[in-house]
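Support reply, case 0932

Customer input (verbatim):
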Amino acid sequence: MTETTGRARKFVERRRFSRRKLEVRVLIAVERNGRVVHLAGQSKEISPGGLGAVVIGHLSEDESVSIDLRLSDSGEVLSLRAHVRNNPYQQHFGFEFTDVPDDLLSGLQQVCESLPLS
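Our regenerated output:
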């Protein structure tokens, strides 16, 4: 095992939630200079605590955003507030959900449990 692989494994072990595979379109809204800017993206993984997605456009770490996505074929759009947490790769961003109501968090946990591990 390389040093990098070992560090990555320890980081994964510290996560609060396991990541699950989810590839759906997402729409990111961020307010800049009094205007709302919309960015399109594709989720890669989700957990009750956040989302990983490839986004076309620039986001800054700690920026507050709104994320719209569909978790099922029902057509219901889920809107979640989040902070941009990292950008480990060029346009792949990590988002941490914020202010998730308990009932929505419970539903999100159920959906995540039905998805394959990432």
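We compared this against your earlier run and they match. Two observations from our side: Helices lie at 3-14, 102-113. The mean pLDDT is 86. Please reopen the case if you see a mismatch on your end.
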